[in-house]
Amino acid sequence: MQDNYQYNVGGGQSSQYNQNGDGMDTTPLTVGEWALTILALAIPCVGFILYCVWAFSKTGNINRRNFCRAGLIIYAVCILIYVLIFVVFGAALLGGMGSYYY
Q1: CA 37, CA 43: separation in Å to the nearest integer?
Q2: Residue 75 neighbours by CB under 8 Å, 6+ apart
Q3: What is the model's pLDDT at position 24?
Q4: 59 to 16, 19, 53, 69, 83: CA distances (angstroms)
Q5: In this structure, are residues 58 and 21 in contact, taking their beta carbons and an 8 Å threshold?
């Protein structure tokens, strides 16, 4: 009974590592690791580079990789929305300027 408990709760972390044989760590990240990940990603230029490195890495933690992939998708959607807003308001501004005569 005790061996089964340790295996299911976390004593058997080595069995979770590289479970699929693809080199990815499947162990859950701790609260401290998540905090450090989020703080590192909050650094303006370095954060974007870390997003790319962790999102496209073949090794490392699979949870961090999926988090970074989702973050990059959200970045891309936000940039597309910003570009769309600038194009629409820029066209409206330029169209409105053509009707004014001095």
Answers
A1: 11
A2: 48, 51
A3: 87
A4: 14, 13, 10, 14, 34
A5: no
Pick from 23-37, 65-79, 84-98: least confident: 84-98
82 in helix, strand or coil? Answer: helix
Cα R_g (the chain), whole angstroms: 23
The span from the CA of 75 to the CA of 52, in Å, is: 11
Q: Among residues 56, 58, 52, 54, which one has the least CA distance to residue 20?
A: 58
Residues 14-70: tens digit of each pLDDT: 545 555 567 789 999 999 999 999 999 999 999 999 999 999 999 999 999 999 999
pLDDT value of position 40: 95
Please, what sign has the CA dihedral across residues 33, 37, 40, 42? negative
Residue carrying the six token digits 């409206």: 92
